[in-house]
């Protein structure tokens, strides 16, 4: 599913994929930890993998970067959102899942990314609530509506 993105990433970085808790723990605690960790599924939201999530959090607290992406939010069950983020010290929770156009909050993202990021784009995603406004790179605008072939274009803007 993510072959084009992975191929593009591989032209700019060395990628290392892990599929087991033990392999992930070895990579996170190696003498040369990764520059970033991409969380692509919901495995770390499950109780059986809490020790791996704790290791990722330690990696982050030591200066590492972790990105929840891909299917991670789509496969996380709604009751698991708040506990997952709470363990990281965040009050984030699932708000809604829909397609809408979001707008870049230029002042919130690092200067080195501002010119490369699109001003606005349509995304189908899980939207979070309780996120500090200064931490949001993209958000709905006043003109944002639910973009659906089934449902009418109801306003979702301003959040």
Q: What is the β-strand count?
A: 5
- First-residue to last-residue Cα separation: 30 Å
Which strands sit side by side, in order, in the main sheet? 4-3-5
Structural class: alpha+beta
User: What is the subunit arrangement here?
Assistant: single chain
What about the largest sheet? 3 strands, antiparallel
Task: Give a short overview.
It contains 5 helices and 5 strands; from the N terminus they run H-H-E-H-E-H-E-H-E-E.
Descriptive account of the structure:
This is PABS domain-containing protein. This protein is of the alpha+beta class and 159 residues long. The chain has 2 domains: 90 residues; 68 residues, no CATH class. It has 5 helices and 5 strands, in the order ααβαβαβαββ. A 3-stranded antiparallel sheet has the order 4-3-5. A two-stranded parallel ribbon has the order 1-2. α3 links the parallel β1 and β2. It is globular. The two termini are 30 Å apart. The model has no long low-confidence stretch (mean pLDDT 92).
Give descriptors for this structure.
19% strand; alpha+beta; 5 strands; 2 domains; 159 residues
Write the layout of secondary structure elements.
Layout: H1 3-10, H2 21-28, E1 37-39, H3 50-61, E2 66-68, H4 78-86, E3 93-104, H5 111-114, E4 120-129, E5 138-140
Parallel strand pairs: 1-2
Antiparallel strand pairs: 3-4, 3-5
Helix pairs in contact: 2-3
